[in-house]
Amino acid sequence: MTKRNQTNWVIELSPEIGDNKSRVSSKSNIQNILQAVMQRNMLVALHFGHNDDFILTSILAIDPELGKIVVDSGEAEKLGQVVLHSNKVTFVTSKDESKIQFICTAIRKIQFEGRNAFSIDLPESLLRIKKRQYYQITNASPT
Predict the structure, then answer these.
(1) Which residue among 11, 25, 46, 52 is least enclosed by CB atoms within 10 Å?
(2) 3, 54 Cβ separation under 8 angstroms
(3) What total of structural domains would you count in the chain?
(4) Tell me: the pLDDT tens digits for 59-109?
(5) Residues 109-137: pLDDT tens digits?
(6) Is residue 107 domain-resident?
(7) pLDDT given for residue 87 in this prediction
(8) Cα distances (angstroms) measured from residue 122 to each of 27, 43, 45, 56, 139
């Protein structure tokens, strides 16, 4: 499934949120977050290209020893080729009312349990923005 020119789910940090509060860098925490997304069969949007294109997919497997994640590549072969040739793919999902996002620059096509899939490296860090941070509004003082 792909959509074009729809609401962009990609998170952009505002100065009020700050990178330190939202960035998860612990390998075990990253694995736990992504494992929960996989176990709950949550949808993941893979944003790619320059036209705000994305496909909806899910995490099929996580191999912490090899440092790899396997995601479904979907049925659209043409879109799969565009994803494979993208310089940057942004993965966006949610877990427990938090937005989860990470960027991948190396994506490979593989066979997983008899079907086409993508293999990516486990991210070194990811963003986890809780609902209260995401919708945080700062009060402007009157001038």
Answers:
(1) 25
(2) yes
(3) 1
(4) 999 999 999 999 998 776 767 777 887 888 899 998 888 899 999 888 999
(5) 999 999 889 999 999 999 998 765 444 43
(6) yes
(7) 80
(8) 9, 17, 16, 19, 38
52: which 2 tokens?
Answer: 């705000």
Helix, strand or coil, per DSSP, at residue 126: strand
Amino acid symbol at 50? H
CA separation for the pair 14, 49 (Å, rounded): 23
Q: Is residue 51 part of a domain?
A: yes
Q: Give the list of residues 6+ apart from residue 60 with CB closer than 8 angstroms, or none.
A: 38, 70, 71, 72, 112, 113, 117
Q: Write out the DSSP string of 52-65.
A: TEEEEE-EEEEETT
Confirm whether 36 is domain-assigned. yes
The arithmetic mean of pLDDT across residues 13-22, rounded, is 55
Cα distance between residue 42 and residue 23, in whole Å: 21
Enclosing domain of residue 30: 21-134
Run of H or E including 120: strand 115-121
Confidence of residue 13 (pLDDT cuts 50, 70, 90): very low
**Looking at residue 118, which CATH number applies to its domain?**
2.30.110.10
State how far the Cα of 32 lies from the Cα of 19, in Å rounded to an integer.
Answer: 20
